[in-house]
Amino acid sequence: MTPFARTFRRVFVCALVISLISLIAWLLAVRHLPLQTNVLSLLPETERNPVAEQAVEHLASSVSDRVVVLIGANDASTAYTAAARFETLARASNAFAKVRAKVPPVDLAFLSNFYLPHRFALLTPGDRAELQSQLRRAASGSQSRMPATLASSPFSLTNPADDPFGWLDHWLTHLPFGQLRLLPDQGWLTARDRGKTWVLVLMQTQGSAFDTSVQQRVRRVFDQATSQIGDASSGVEILRSGAVFHAADARSQAEMELHRIGIVATLGIAALMLWAFRSGRLLVMGLATIAFGTLCAALTTLVFFGELHLLTLVFGAALIGETVDYAIQYFVGVGGLARDQAQRALPVIRPALRIALGTSVLGYAILGVVPFPALRQIAVFALAGLLSSYVFVVWALPAFLGPKVPQLRGAVIGLAQRWLLIWRGTLAGRRGVVVGIAIILACLPGWARLHTDDDVRHLISRDPSLVAQEQVISRITGIDGATQFWLVQADSEEALLRREEQLGARLDEATAREDAPISGWTGVSQFVPSMQRQLDDRALLGATYFDAPEALASEMIHAGFRPDFARQYAQAYHNEGETPPLRVDQWLAWPGSEPFRPLWMGSIAAQRDADTGAPGSDQFASLTRPSGLRDSAQAARLADGLPGVTYVDKATSISALFARYRVAAIQWFAAALVIVAMLLARRYGWRGAIATLLPTMLACAAVIATFGYLELPITLFVQMGLMLVLGVGVNYAIFLREGELRAGEDERQAAIAVAGTLMSAATTLLSFGLLAFSGMPSLQAFGLTLTIGIALSLLLAPYSLRFPELRQ
């Protein structure tokens, strides 16, 4: 390489790095491409019905910005005072778009006035059945036409003058408002639980719950509330629930692990390189390789996905040890050579780097095949990081070499010689066969103790204290955070309400049983019956009483009603006959519908026909949510046979998907094994390929057995980790074998190659070993699998030297 070419490459690389940094900063700051903490964004689509996926997002978005707070104290007045102080603090914080603490004075007419114009078209199932029975008895002449009961309850929601027989009152009290266990007191919504008075405060965040600035503002409010309002001596307690807290906790945990892994791994790699090479130049070049790979990985991920999840960044921090491997192998290969000699030696070193890159790329590429956004994003990040690091090493680093490349220290080479002598001797000849058989036999008890667990909660951990607070809030208030629901679809609003009524009839029947999987349900059809049901109920009242208004008035007068009122009420049915049935859009515009509006999805644009490509007709959809869910599987069966009704349980669906992928991963591993064997066979022959793969295969077997001995479950993430053990672990056998190929009979050069292999393994173990201590279950499974697998792959790597005569 001429001096001009060397200078050009240096300038170009520096300009490229500056450009990458500037572009990433622009994407994050100007284009506002986010660092994502929303776990839902990492979950795959699991529903065959695309509208079900829309429904999951619809429900999640409707509650993600909600914050529920309960403030409790032993004394009611203390609780009210604390709630008032919290309300003032929350309103002044600019963290919340809405704060609802005190409620207006209870106006029973607020509810009845909305439904009053439709009073003759709204009947509960019980009243409907009673009227039908009365109609049959009246037809046989065995009963008078007078209603059986009068509306005489002092707690009636309606005015007796408007609803003397209580039909509307029964219908109003049948609405699911009663599922909330709160009562108004002095303007506060309160509940008594275990000797404490609890006050409810509802809020909505000022912005997305997954926005960092929003999380910080909300946290400041609660930190202030805890210090200023929470008082252990008076028993004041503040409970909170909301996605913003889980998102903030996930972000905090991820950032902490990102810093810990990134800093410790980088410092460890720096110390190792300084000790091994005693060269600041090589250290800077190695760190530059890491930086370049990380920048390219982050930029590629942002371009592909439009966001970068913190989970990916934490895994990316653990990738540091692998990206620097290529630089270490290059430095070891050219150590002790002059600059020109080092540049000419690159073609000799490149085959080993290419094979190692190919196996690693294969392992991560299989992650990208899995239709799971979390694994795909990690795969894209890793592939971009590894490929760019390789290109940086073989194209950029030669331009930055000094006049002479520092060689490995003698102590490092001596350590490598002793290690190779011990392990090569241990694994040579029959002893190697005995060691292999012993490993397999030691694995058998561990394999027998294996069990699987595909729960989606292995993706990320949740703060136990937040979960406990949510459970207490749900118990006290009745505000249920369940994510399961029935999706109801039809081609019109009317058909949708009818289908939901069919579902509701089944659910009512189920809740009446002692072994009911649910205690109740909430749906739009409870608030707005279908037009057909309203017309049928009106006709039923007419046939039972109002078709003969004079006879009804006479019987009412005989029962003690004033004559003018009796005649006016008997005639009201006919006077209000022109009132159109209640519609969903009227209900949605009514303020009282606000807590239940997320149940209505309304018109949904249909997907294009899969065969013709023509657009389908629009669909209407709504959600029906269970309350007091006890058995999700039984609840799902309640909708069996109902057309247009789908039970959606995202967590269960994803867990089932994890199980399918985990089983399929065995086939993927076998396919990857065949591909890697073919790649190795092209260079080493089939016997040499098998010998090179043997260390990694034994390591994978031991990893699985270790999980059995530790009684840890085998999950999808463990299976994917094994895929990476195959892709990464085989590199050490390759490096060892290639080093001997280059060294020939020169034992010192062979030892130098071994030292490079040991250093590569050390850097990888350092970073992935830290990942094994992650608080995120998914990354912890990755880390533990990779740490054990890579360590054993390194120790058993001398197996690859069992057929030296077959080297090519």
* Shape category: elongated
Q: Biggest sheet, in brief?
A: 6 strands, antiparallel
Provide the low-confidence segments as ranges.
607-615
CATH architecture of one domain: Up-down Bundle
Number of strands: 13
Structural Rg: 35 Å
Structural class: alpha+beta
Please, what is the CATH homologous superfamily of one domain? Multidrug efflux transporter AcrB transmembrane domain
Residue-averaged pLDDT, rounded? Answer: 83
Strand content: 5-15%
What's the CATH C level of one domain? Mainly Alpha
CATH topology of one domain: Multidrug efflux transporter AcrB transmembrane fold
**Count of alpha and pi helical runs:** 28
Calculate the terminal CA-CA distance, rounded to whole Å: 29 Å
**Helical coverage, percent range:** 55-70%
